[in-house]
Amino acid sequence: MKQIGNLLIILGIVMIGIFAYQYWNHHHAQQQAMIQAEEQLQNATTEAAVWEDKEQQAERIKKYQADDKQAFGTLEIPKLDRTIPIVEGADEESLKSGVGHVAQTRFPGQGNQIVLSGHRDTVFRDFGKMETGDRYIIEMPYGAFEYEIKKEEIVPAGDTSIIGESSEEVLIVSTCYPFDYVGFAPERYVTYAYPVH
After folding, report:
1. Where do the DSSP E strands lie in 44-94?
2. Range of the structural domain that residue 14 is part of
3. Is the pTM higher than 0.90?
């Protein structure tokens, strides 16, 4: 009986160690991504000083692309008092560093669908507090863009129908659901936010 007790204690210590390492790893990756994103934004501010006119800036926005795994901007969520780096790609490595931009979708200011995704237990902690009327602010190398949530829905985890072309600019932000689920969650919580002009 004593051996079982000792084994359970050792197992508990190992589990705590794994959790602590994963937390540190995610935190470190997000810090590095934030540094990279801030550098991108700072460099862009310097470049913007030499832009000749709005037409040139509009062309720059239209052609903007980010490199895979690159942290290129930030997502601010005022309600949660949180600013998160945005990383190109929605694979596990990208999501470890911040909120992932789904590569086949557009960027702010390009007049179409922008899809961001993140983990509920890291970058989107407390995301259950978000509701219609709340706002997101995206800081890009070419400017800041504000969006207001107009709709929320819950979809199955494998549902990719939210990704596609749109007749207007819409920011779609998704995370795993239910928020308190242990393990791989069976659903996704999705918000649809539209530009605030």
Report:
1. 71-77, 82-88
2. 1-195
3. no
Is 119 catalytic? The answer is: yes
Residue 73 neighbours by CB distance under 10 Å: 29
> What total number of domains does the chain contain?
1
CA pair distance 103, 16, nearest whole angstrom: 35
Tell me how far apart the terminal alpha carbons of the chain are, to the nearest angstrom: 68
What the block records as the tokens of 188 is 């996704």
CATH of the domain at 184: 2.40.260.10
Q: What is the pLDDT of residues 136-176, one digit of tens each?
A: 999 999 889 999 999 999 999 888 888 887 889 999 999 99
Please provide the DSSP assignment of 87-110 as one string: EE--SHHHHHHSEEEPTTS--TTS
What span, in angstroms and rounded, lies between the C-alpha atoms of 148 and 132? 8
CB 121 within 8 A of CB 127: no
Of the candidates 28, 101, 176, 197, the residue annotated as catalytic is: 176
Is-catalytic flag, 197?
no
Tens of pLDDT, residue by residue over 33-53, are 667 667 777 766 555 555 557
CA distance linking residue 66 with residue 70, whole number of Å: 6
